[in-house]
Amino acid sequence: MKRHLRILAALLALSLISAGPADDGRWYAGDYSFSDELGGFHILSVTGTGTKVDPIVINEVLNSESPVTLVIRAAKPIQHHGFPEGAFHLRVVTENNSGLAWIEFEFELQEILGKPSDFYDGLSFDQTNPNPDLISSNRFARFESHFEKFDRLRFANGHVDPLDRPAFGFFITDVTPVTEFYLVQDPRVPFS
Predict the structure, then answer these.
(1) What range does the domain containing 101 cover?
(2) Which stretch is the leader sequence (predicted)?
(3) Which of 63-72, 149-158, 177-186 has the highest mean pLDDT?
């Protein structure tokens, strides 16, 4: 009987690990899907529901020192998780496979690909009620959030060596009328 319980526990633990992308190439978690289809990085796993205690966690490998773009799509009708519709906690764990050290890291939201999100489009890093307790990094000591003319979150005062895996946590609010938006990830490298 104990052996059966151990096997059941192991199977349950495996079911909590993201098994891979769906047939459409997207990774599903919470009310959204996530895609590395624009290149420069690849997703290893996506888990979580998007709540504060169970954030959506994206494990990825960044192969470039140039900005890369994560495609985020509403995957199903928005559920209520104790915060406004279209809001979720996100944790991004990124392996630095660029071959260069990073001295800062920036995230930018875009409702239209290539055009920074503005104050009025309904997409933000929680601009209506910013809470610094919801923003974190294990490699950078401080962050700056900018809501005008764009929605950017820059992490600074730290560094990430090649093959290191920094983690970033933040809250995204999405009350846009569109079902697809973008998260640009921009590692900053030292220059001489």
Answers:
(1) 21-188
(2) 1-22
(3) 63-72
Closest CA to 185 of 87, 102, 120: 102
Closest CA relative to residue 116, chosen from 148, 141, 88, 87: 148
Strand order from edge to edge, sheet including 32-35: 27-29, 32-35, 68-74, 180-188, 104-110, 151-158, 140-146
Domain count, the chain: 1
- Helices first, then strands: H and E counts in the chain: 1, 13
What's the CA gap between 33 and 27, in Å, rounded? 5
Report the run of H or E that residue 33 belongs to, with start and end: strand 32-35
Whether residue 109 is contained in a domain is answered as: yes
- Look at residue 126 in the predicted model and tell me its pLDDT: 73
* 118 alpha-carbon distance from chain centroid: 19
Strands 56-62 and 87-96: parallel
